[in-house]
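Severity: low
Component: inverse-folding endpoint
Summary: output formatting inconsistent between runs
Steps to reproduce: submit the following structure tokens with default settings.
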């Protein structure tokens, strides 16, 4: 494959390298290509599909790239290093090795019409050969220090875009079983460096069972990735030892878009089981983070993800005073061991949260940072940092206060950990008669209140009252399911502090259906087309999560519009 890519680069222009299955053999029955390739020209790298096996053992050959044979000290590693050294490229001179596909580019080499495309492959076996050197001695988690540079170890991973890989498209692939330093499946750029990988598209991929040690589990989007789009992907079963088990936008990138993905059963050892949007930690902790840049999070199903700190489903952290649009999402059955089982906000003062369904999320109060007391389960917020507050206008709220209308918050349960079991969530190991504690939104540190309007709420705790809401009236989902947890105690931390491990308990079949069952839903005709906040107006989405047009006068609340 690399020989074909070099021939395409030498020929100039825009080329297609079509990759058929490798020749099958006794030790390679599915025709896998055991090769780590470098893309550095205007080429469409085109596979014929990921291949696979039938239940009866029959094999369908596909275009499979497997990086397991790579080793920096073997001939393949030496050849890879020699090739990379011979290619002029933007970004840091040193290129992290070990990714199955590495994309290099020169400044201004690619525009929309000639950028590389990677389509139709199964990409697996990218392996990080060294362990992260920033393990926290107290918590056992991985924590990137202030102003940390990028990886210097073999970074591994499925696909890596180094610098100036503008307009690259990663589409229609199965990206599975890769491990990497800054995202196991796809890494765009390097943290704490603006590597100018703008307008990247990651679309229609199946991304599952990948792991990352630093800042991202499956997809890591780092500073300078302006106008990226992560859309229409299935992102399942990925794990991060730090932030963002599914998707992690970390650093200043303007106008990103995370849309129409299904993100489920991902986990993080720290914050954000599903989606993380965060600004970088500044070199000096007394300074203000540069922030995240504006981001659109629209039309995603974020379900059954687990964070061992804040934000089981969606976490916004140090985003800064930029618009973050959160619309048409179904955020259900996620778990946070601290705050915000569904959504958690911190230093994110301009969030527009409209027409979302946030239901069945849990907090367990079992995180290393938790006191054991209950915390908001649907949406949590917190006081602004002094650094951020100093930049806001006089009279601005002193906490992250989103613009909230046309939403559904239902059956979000806030647990308390008493050292034996989690009370208040209906856990199987709780004693009979343990009451369920519903807490849709608010703050564990006493700031607030939040001001939802035109929304279905289970409870008004943590909110200012509004006659536009419907409280305690069932939205009547088609087929919800209650997620639960069990707790195991062990001594896993290096400091020998007792840890609690939260295990999700999910149904064996089906993941529920959170569409509205019909006009008897309390969400029916409850919404409004727009709301004005001060000097500007926030407009509700014209279509629902399924692409159906909403009523222009009385839309339904939540992500689904009843036909």
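Observed output (run 2 of 3):
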């Amino acid at each position: 494959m690399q020989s074909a890519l070099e021939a395409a680069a030498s020929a100039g222009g825009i080329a297609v390298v079509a990759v058929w299955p490798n020749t099958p053999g006794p030790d390679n029955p599915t025709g896998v290509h055991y090769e780590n390739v470098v893309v550095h020209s205007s080429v469409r790298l085109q596979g014929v599909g990921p291949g696979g096996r039938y239940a009866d053992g029959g094999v369908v050959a596909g275009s499979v790239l497997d990086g397991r044979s790579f080793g920096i000290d073997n001939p393949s590693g030496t050849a890879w290093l020699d090739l990379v050294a011979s290619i002029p490229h933007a970004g840091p001179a040193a290129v992290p090795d070990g990714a199955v596909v590495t994309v290099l580019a020169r400044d201004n080499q690619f525009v929309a019409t000639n950028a590389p495309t990677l389509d139709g492959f199964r990409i697996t076996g990218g392996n990080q050969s060294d362990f992260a050197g920033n393990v926290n001695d107290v918590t056992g988690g991985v924590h990137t220090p202030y102003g940390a540079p990028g990886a210097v170890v073999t970074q591994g991973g499925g696909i890596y875009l180094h610098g100036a890989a503008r307009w690259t498209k990663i589409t229609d692939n199965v990206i599975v079983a890769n491990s990497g330093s800054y995202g196991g499946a796809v890494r765009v750029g390097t943290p704490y460096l603006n590597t100018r990988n703008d307008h990247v598209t990651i679309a229609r991929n199946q991304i599952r069972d990948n792991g990352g040690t630093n800042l991202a589990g499956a997809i890591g989007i780092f500073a300078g990735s302006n106008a990226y789009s992560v859309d229409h992907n299935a992102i399942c079963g990925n794990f991060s030892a730090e932030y963002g088990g599914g998707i992690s936008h970390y650093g200043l990138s303007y106008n990103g878009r995370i849309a129409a993905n299904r993100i489920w059963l991902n986990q993080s050892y720290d914050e954000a089981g599903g989606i993380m949007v965060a600004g970088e930690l500044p070199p000096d902790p007394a300074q203000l983070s540069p922030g995240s840049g504006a981001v659109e999070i629209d039309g995603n199903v974020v379900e059954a993800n687990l964070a061992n700190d804040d934000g089981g489903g969606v976490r916004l952290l140090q985003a800064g005073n930029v618009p973050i649009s959160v619309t048409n999402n179904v955020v259900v059955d996620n778990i946070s061991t601290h705050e915000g089982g569904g959504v958690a906000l911190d230093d994110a003062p301009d969030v527009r949260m409209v027409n979302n369904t946030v239901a069945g999320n849990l907090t367990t109060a079992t995180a290393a940072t938790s006191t054991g007391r209950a915390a908001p389960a649907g949406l949590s917020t917190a006081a602004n940092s002094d650094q951020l507050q100093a930049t806001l206008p006089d009279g601005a709220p002193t906490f992250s206060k989103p613009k909230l209308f046309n939403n559904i918050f239902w059956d979000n349960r806030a647990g308390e950990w008493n050292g034996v079991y989690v009370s208040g969530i209906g856990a199987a190991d709780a004693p009979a008669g343990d009451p369920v504690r519903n807490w849709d939104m608010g703050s564990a540190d006493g700031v607030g209140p939040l001001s939802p309007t035109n929304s279905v709420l289970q409870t008004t705790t943590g909110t200012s009252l509004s006659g536009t809401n419907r409280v305690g009236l069932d939205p009547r989902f088609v087929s919800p399911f209650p997620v639960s947890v069990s707790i195991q105690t062990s001594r896993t931390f290096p400091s020998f502090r007792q840890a609690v491990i939260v295990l999700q308990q999910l149904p064996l079949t089906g993941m529920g259906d959170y569409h509205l069952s019909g006009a008897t839903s309390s969400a029916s005709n409850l919404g409004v087309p727009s709301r004005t906040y001060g000097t500007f107006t926030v407009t509700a989405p014209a279509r629902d999560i399924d692409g159906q047009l909403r009523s222009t006068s009385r839309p339904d609340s939540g992500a689904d519009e009843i036909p």
